[in-house]
Design brief:
Number of domains: 1
Order of helices and strands: HHHH
Number of helices: 4
Radius of gyration: 15 Å
Amino acid sequence: MTDPTAKSLWEAITGLVREVKQCEAAGFTMAALALAYVGIDTMAYLAMPDGKSEQTRQDFIAWVDTYLKAHADQPYQYRGLDVYAARCGVLHAFRRRAYTERIPISASSATTPGASTS
């Protein structure tokens, strides 16, 4: 990685991951979660095809469906649409429940990790 732009981008991404970990270690779970969604947004932006300049929710959903994988023996496997709905709930309404009023999601994942279903 000799390109100075790539180096600074890598440092920014690893810095964001460090901040997520620091928030979690300090007990700031919602802040860590919000930063994690920012990280996914960033990675989805970077994964867009060459020539595309505007990111959409489809880019986020596609990135999650391609790269965010739970271990095969886990009962829940991430779905891009579900993670996007949860992201919108946290970033736009600052709530633990997924933002389902405008984004239909599966019933099996209607809450963000650790949230109550009641």
